[in-house]
Design goal:
Length: 490
DNA sequence: TTTTGAGTTGTTCGA
DNA sequence: GTCGAACAACTCAAA
């Protein structure tokens, strides 16, 4: 029984099938080598993975079958375990990143060649990206029709229960030690802020869901935009690691909230729909993380400027809402959705730095870094993604701050050096009077940066650069290669 | 095959 | 200070 990004016991169809078979079960987590083609988890996700595996191993102790940890290519590890156990069946929940799909396809073929049984199950997504097509047989490139099509289908199945016990394999199977994988940061241990903010693991996921349903679903549609509060679900890292499934979330929304406003529930379902859409796009565009979805952007003159990139990464741009977001990311491994859009717009439009640089930084620092969501959303903000915003839409970091952090609680929390500025100038410190600055203990250029770029100038420059590619021919990055339905996922 | 309606998230400008 | 229009042209999806 293979585990990958499905670190849970509940609503795990492969595990449920293994338990129901009555055969002894050997649960295995395979740590694939970096050069396997899969995208290696970034530093923040390695931290999360360590703790999530710890919790998963404890869960397996409880139900009687110890979790085995192994390193290597999945196929090789599976071969070795078959040799050690005489297993006749290998089960897994499907994954949907290009390298994972390829690896599992090879594994399934190799097992079948030897007359062994291989079974895979859904669970990570509400829809199979290979199955959902437009009426003309292609895949969806616009979110709204995609979501309408998905919502038009039968309601997703109910979650399945976690097995109460498993039949243990009679001999012990050797396992690598989690500590030896060195997933946790040492010297320096930068994970303090992550520990304070998050509880990796299935129980942590259920608790977070509970909090969301109790405290935040009502009013979600509006509150979700305000980063100072807890208006979002904060389930993304749990979803990314498969500690909770969208089926469990949809099930809870159906059964536990008969009185919650339909608008809020619909809006939250739609946000999970974006996750589905991202995977839909990734499946049909395996190079989504490296190539412009809209190839017209290939000629956009990005500016390679490591100094400015560094200032953005450290949250030293001089725009408080941008800096607060980047520091929230650095400190907690997560950033509020509204602020993600603002900082991404700032990097790609104000600084004209390639979205891939931002995507790579997020990949390394986000505990919820997701192979589909991360590139799809970066491309969306940059304008080269599916159903792009008009090229002339450039987020104004001052207006965004004033609109969505009007009391400044978010900025004051993450940019304490300007916390004593009055609300009226908090999001634009360079406009504060000398008296206001000195009363707040702020020395621009010393205790807090002067803005890296002037908004209006940067806006004009971005519009000019983006206008320059307007005439380019639009071509999808993955042309018309239709997949047959039977070419389903391994 | 052709036509038609529509497309997450915004900003700026001028009345 | 508020409000509506302009900001482009094009692709997508379905009728």
């Amino acid at each position: 029984m293979l585990f990958r990004t499905d670190l849970r016991l509940g609503d795990h169809r492969a595990l449920a099938a293994a338990a129901a078979s009555g055969k002894p079960v050997v649960p295995v987590f395979v740590r694939e080598p970096d050069q396997s083609g899969a995208r290696a988890p970034g530093a923040a996700r390695r931290w999360w993975l360590h703790h999530s595996l710890e919790r998963l191993a404890a869960g397996f102790e409880n139900i009687g079958a110890p979790l085995v940890l192994r390193s290597g290519e999945t196929a090789g590890v599976v071969d070795e375990l078959i040799g050690q156990t005489g297993a006749d069946t290998v089960l897994w929940n499907r994954r949907y990143d290009p390298a994972g799909i390829a690896a599992d396809k090879r594994l399934k073929a190799s097992l079948h060649d030897r007359g062994l049984s291989a079974e895979s199950f859904e669970g990570h997504l509400l829809h199979e990206p290979s199955r959902l097509t437009t009426t003309t047989g292609g895949y969806y490139k616009v979110y709204t029709p995609f979501w309408r099509a998905l919502e038009g289908q039968p309601e997703p199945r109910a979650p399945v229960d976690a097995p109460k016990s498993l039949r243990r394999f009679e001999r012990g199977i050797n396992s690598e030690r989690l500590d030896a994988w060195r997933l946790l940061p040492k010297r320096p241990d930068w994970a303090g802020g992550l520990r304070d903010a998050w509880t990796p693991g299935e129980q942590g996921a259920q608790k977070q869901l509970r909090r969301f349903l109790d405290d935040a679903i009502e009013g979600y549609a509006t509150n979700r935009d305000f980063p100072a509060g807890q208006g979002t679900s904060r389930l993304s890292p749990h979803l990314a690691h498969g500690e909770i499934t969208p089926y469990q979330i949809f099930g809870a929304l159906r059964s536990e909230l008969p009185d919650a406003p339909a608008k809020d529930i619909a809006r939250f379902r739609m946000e999970l729909g974006w996750r589905e859409f991202s995977y839909h796009l990734l499946f049909h565009n395996p190079d989504l993380a490296t190539e412009n979805f809209n190839r017209a952007f290939d000629t956009l003159p990005w500016r390679a400027d490591p100094v400015l990139l560094g200032r953005w990464q450290r949250g030293e741009t001089g725009y408080p809402i941008v800096d607060a977001g980047m520091r929230e990311l650095w400190q907690t491994g997560w950033m509020h959705n509204r602020v993600r859009m603002v900082v991404a717009s700032f990097l790609t439009k104000h600084l004209l730095i390639d979205w891939r640089d931002g995507e790579a930084w997020f990949w390394d620092t986000l505990i919820d870094a997701d192979p589909a969501n991360n590139p799809a959303s970066w491309q969306w903000v940059a304008g080269c993604g599916a159903d792009a915003a008009p090229y002339f839409r450039v987020f104004n970091p001052v207006l965004q701050g004033e609109k969505f952090d009007p009391e400044g609680a978010y900025v004051r929390r993450f940019v304490p050096e300007i916390a004593r500025l009055p609300d009226a100038v908090l999001h634009r410190p360079w406009t504060a009077s000398a008296a206001q600055l000195s009363a707040a203990g702020v020395k621009l250029g010393e205790t807090y940066p002067v803005p890296l770029v002037d908004h209006n100038q940067a806006r004009e420059r971005a519009l000019a650069a983006y206008a320059g590619i307007k005439g380019e021919q639009w071509t999808p990055s993955a042309p018309a290669k239709r997949r047959a339905p039977e070419d389903a996922l391994p």
